[in-house]
Amino acid sequence: xxxxxxxxxxxxxxxxxxxxxxxxxxxxxxxxxxxxxxxxxxxxxxxxxxxxxxxxxxxxxxxxxxxxxxxxxxxxxxxxxxxxxxxxxxxxxxxxxxxxxxxxxxxxxxxxxxxxxxxxxxxxxxxxxxxxxxxxxxxxxxxxxx
Length: 146
Fold this sequence. Notes:
Layout: H1 7-19, H2 26-40, H3 46-54, H4 62-67, H5 74-90, H6 96-108, H7 125-136
């Protein structure tokens, strides 16, 4: 089944990605629109334009939207993940919230971890914790004068 058959949940998944970092920039809006036009092979309908304008991240349910695509072949679900990753890349910023959104989507789509290769930031968490602990500890106090 083509993505264009489920354009509304696709639109919401893309918009969710655009809002993942709590900012919805004009470049992201334009990219969402262009992707939807490409998937439709036609101009956006008034309903889709209204959906984009009315999107409320507070009411967005990623898992429910992802469920629309769960029965698609793995190759198609990986392609969907790639579309969402492209929205994350539009603002030319590395953001952990966007990265987490992509990971959550991959899990909701029941994709293997390998599907995220090259799409997410891999950080050695333990190394960061150790570094943070070193930075967080203040230097020892100087000895008191007698």
